[in-house]
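Q: For a teaching session next week I want to show students how multiple molecules come together into a single three-dimensional assembly. I've collected the sequence lines for a complex. Could you give me the predicted structure tokens for the whole thing so I can convert them for display?
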Amino acid sequence: MQIYLPIADLPVNIFLILGMGLAVGFISGMFGIGGGFLMTPLLIFLGVSPAVAVATVSSHIAASSCSGAISYWRRRTIDVPLAGLLLAGGIAGTASGVWLFTTLRSIGQLDITIGLSYVLLLGIVGGLMVIESVRAIMRARRGKPIELRRPGSHTWIHGLPFKLRFKRSGIYVSAVPVLGIGYIIGFVGAVMGIGGGFLLVPMLIYILRVPTQTVIGTSMVLTLVTMASATVMHAATNHLVDAVLAMFLMVGGVVGAQFGARAGQRISGERLRLLLGLLVLAVGIRFGLDLTLPPENLFTLRPLEAG
Amino acid sequence: MIRPACLILLAAGGITGAAPPAAAERLVTSLSEHRVMVTSSFNGSEVVLFGGIERDTGALPLRGNYDIAVTVIGPRQTVVTFRKERVLGIWLNYESRVFENAPSYLAVLTNRPLEAITNADTLRRLQLGLDNIALPQRLDHAPADDVPGETFRKAFLTLKDEHGLYRQESNGVTFLTPALFRASIALPAEVPTGTYEIEVKLFMDGMLIARTPSALEIYKAGFEQFVSSSAQNHGVLYGLAAALMAILTGWFASVVFRRD
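A: Of course. Below is the structure for the complete assembly, covering every listed component.
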């Protein structure tokens, strides 16, 4: 069954879109991430222009992180003050990201920037995750305990001023890196159409030493608010959010996420991180090939007026 | 949204005054649809144009060697064509050309190949056919030459053709009787909305003897229209609604799938 998308200006199969939402939702529920880094490339592959894909996916991620955040809220595993501070940085980051997005679009270098950032970011993060999780699995095989949090070890981050105490997470850190992390996530999210969960979770764990109990819930709250505001900002400045496309993605996404979350509980943490790392790396490599292999068609057309 | 003015032209049937004195042929045309609605189930469409050739005096019988060329031009759009080049091992948009007010859709339908209908000079003068249509270009704010074999022009035409937006069909017009013809105008799903100008040209022995204008309108309707106009005119409200929809969907899912 075909439906015509009013903003993307092309007809798509409803079941294909719902299926994509389900599949990406399943993965996002399984790993506790937004799944934007998978959904945006998939939409571009379908023929949706990168600009519309990025803008629309932000609303899809807002929906899936909302259902996640609510269930973590019920379990009381959200550190509200920490999320609030991350958000302050996140909104500033989103605003500058949307500004950069608009500028790059007007000079015709948006696609290449999205492509390059995907390669760099996904390549590095995916690579690190694979290495780290393989090490953890090997350690576990040798029978040593796995330790993510090393309470005693302090880095230069912990020497920064404006220290605050976050009770629920049980950490005492400076506000500077918290705001900085929020800013980076908001910025990257708006430019690349990703929620940034797969970046945020490791940053919170390794840089701020946030314990695993509160890390996912808190990151979901941040994702929810940055993506909801990215939706509004993209709609206000670029008029590119396709509500019809977003709706079908959301419905598929939230349902898929529930099943994914159940499946994820049956796999051990390190295996899960290894799988996610491989997935992230694969998407990064795919983008890398697109940029370096000679393109099928050297020419592209783009209307000069917005839309 | 409704622009009936352009359709009245059609109803009038259009009579040409520019015909050479020797010929007294008139063209009468009609479209199967004057307005094409783009709704949520839109997946391309086809509009059929019917036309008849009439002779003024009726003293002489109709001559048989007529040729018809139908040109359909969609709303004009300024488009940038980028060419990728390898820079430091990466393919990126390097050079670009701006095509000013190029037709977003262009169909040239004839009953036989254009070259067989009339000579190259006439085709060029009438800008008839994909090879002859003028595509003004600009390079860094300075006008650039519109040379027929130029790579950017060729790439532009190829890309438009791949999307089904530019088409030239030498069998697009069928004569039902020596004086009655039909042409089907294929509109792919990607057609932009707006007014489409149609011109039917009648040739006899390589000479243009009559032409008649017509128009077609493609417009978004119902829900599609509502969504795209609110996105365009009420960006902030639209964004807030989209964000709210996301939050409600998420909340709804968490209620439905609640396990405790």
